[in-house]
Amino acid sequence: MVTNCPVCGKRSVGKVGTIQYYCWECCVEFVVRNDEIKVFDVELDGSLTLYNNFQEQSM
Ligand SMILES: [Zn+2]
Asked: I need a surface site. Which of 4, 8, 18, 58 has the fewest CB within 10 A?
């Protein structure tokens, strides 16, 4: 279970879908599937774009 934002590391994370989470600090949405985390920026019109500043960390 994800309780920390992969971008800022804070716990301001809310679940918005089965595998979707939202960080109130960064205003980003991220999807967790197995060990893979994809982060999306939420645009003003509500559309999602891939968050490029986030480099996936290999474990
Ligand atoms: Zn965050």
From this structure: 58
| Domain assignment of residue 52, given as a range | 1-59
Residue corresponding to tokens 């279970």 = 1
Q: How confident is the model at residue 29 (pLDDT cuts 50, 70, 90)?
A: very high
Give percent of the chain with pLDDT exceeding 70: 86
Give the Cα separation of 30 and 23 in Å (integer).
8
CA of 30 to the centre of ligand 1 (A): 10
Residue 19 Cα to ligand 1 midpoint, Å, equals 16
Overall domain count for the chain: 1
